[in-house]
Write a structure and sequence with these properties.
Elements lengths: L1 H19 L7 E5 L4 E3 L9 E12 L2 E9 L2 E4 L8 E2 L10 E3 L8 E11 L4 E13 L7 E4 L5 E3 L4 E6 L7 E7 L5 E5 L3 E4 L8 E8 L8 E2 L3 E6 L45 H8 L2 H11 L10 E6 L15 H4 L7 E3 L4 E6 L2 E7 L8
Parallel strand pairs: 1-9, 11-18
Antiparallel strand pairs: 2-7, 3-4, 3-8, 4-5, 6-7, 8-9, 10-12, 12-15, 13-14, 13-16, 16-17, 16-18, 19-22, 20-21, 21-22
């Protein structure tokens, strides 16, 4: 009875171990020419069983060749054309998957993963799984442009980039272009990434990329065009001050007299009184003699926009007043057709309504008497 129990326990343990050490894989894997692929081969490690050996073999054209073997002495690639191209993860119990890089068309075939375990009583258990690999050439797809973290609108001086992304059988070559006037394009780079360390306003423009591989000679795929915009900070851009709605030419500050530049006097500003010595001349002289004397001695040069003073007196020698409160630009500028006027360059006399008048243009540069 005891022997029967031992046999049952042994059978149950064997079945349990077989279930735990069952290899998992896939039936078929499609690989891309010049790309890489992984052939899965995994199991659940079981206590009391140690992996003794791992073998990867390939069957093609009715012949089988061992590609890779792992044992107590280490890893070995036994087929020369797979050297530097195949590997199995280390320090990963239960993972015996095979990675194949730089796939070639002759790599198509049936691959078998075989794992051998040793139990505590030195018995060996062997499991295997087969996967079919088909290597195909894939033409490059239409590339997509991916902008950097800042997007397509970036501030001046920032670091940014544009990346051209395409899929297909490697190697894939890339070219970057910038659109130019007249439908022309400027070649910028032959890398997948177009980068700027410090973007400038002149970098604003439209960009696109092209991708190509060896599958179809001359078959080039072009991306859509994207527009990169570089913002200029207000401190770097010239600012043109626009007049406010309340501001017009009349509210501007008066001009400072320089050379022949005219001087404007703001509307409503107080008028400067005439020189005091004109009172003395008016008292001493009278009639036409006063006008002749003033015209000969005084040379007032003044712009038309400046105020004029009217010196008014009666025909008698007694001059009792000098009218400065009333500004008479209309009479002095000969707009009154009823007035008889005698003019000179800077001072002139006129008659109006029975009294003599002299209009004088003030010139601060002229010395009097």
């Amino acid at each position: 009875m005891g022997e029967v129990v031992q046999i049952v326990v042994f059978v149950m343990a064997f079945i349990s171990c077989n279930a735990l050490l069952d290899l998992s894989g896939v039936h078929q894997v499609k690989g891309t020419w010049m790309g890489s692929t992984t052939l899965p081969c995994t199991y659940m490690p079981s206590e009391g069983f140690t992996q003794q050996m791992l073998i990867w073999s390939m069957e093609r054209d009715y012949s089988t060749s061992t590609i890779f073997r792992r044992d107590d002495s280490g890893d070995h690639v036994l087929l020369s054309r797979f050297r530097e191209r195949v590997s199995v993860p280390k320090h990963s119990p239960g993972n015996a998957s095979l990675l194949i890089e730089n796939l070639e068309i002759p790599d198509s075939g049936h691959y078998t993963c075989q794992v051998i375990w040793r139990s505590k009583n030195n018995s060996l258990i062997t499991k295997e799984v087969t996967t079919m690999v088909k290597v195909v050439k894939v033409a490059v797809t239409k590339p997509v442009i991916r902008a950097g973290e800042l997007g397509l609108t970036v501030p001046a001086g920032a670091r940014t980039s544009l990346t051209c992304v395409a899929s297909g059988s490697p190697p894939i070559s890339y070219r970057w272009f910038r659109s130019a006037p007249g439908g022309k394009a400027l070649l910028l780079s032959s890398q997948a990434e177009l980068a700027w360390d410090s973007v400038r306003p002149s970098d604003t423009g439209k960009y696109y990329c092209e991708a190509e591989n060896r599958v179809r000679a001359g078959a080039v795929q072009q991306s859509d065009t994207v527009e990169l915009t570089v913002r200029v900070s207000p401190a770097e851009s010239p600012v043109t001050q626009q007049p406010s709605p309340e501001t017009d030419r009349h509210s501007r500050p008066p001009l400072t007299p320089q050379g022949d530049a005219p001087q404007r006097v703001p509307t409503g500003a107080p008028r400067a009184p005439p020189p005091p010595h004109l009172y003395a001349l008016a008292a001493a002289l009278g009639g036409a003699a006063l006008g002749a004397l003033l015209a000969a001695l005084l040379r007032w040069r003044r712009n038309k926009a400046e105020p004029l003073y009217e010196v008014a007196f009666h025909s008698t020698a007694d001059v009792t007043r000098l009218e400065t409160d009333v500004e008479v630009p209309v009479k002095c500028l000969h707009k009154d057709t009823n007035s008889k006027t005698e003019t000179s360059n800077d001072a002139f006399a006129m008659k109006d309504n029975g009294r003599d008048s002299i209009c004088i243009r003030k010139n601060p540069d002229t010395d009097l008497l």
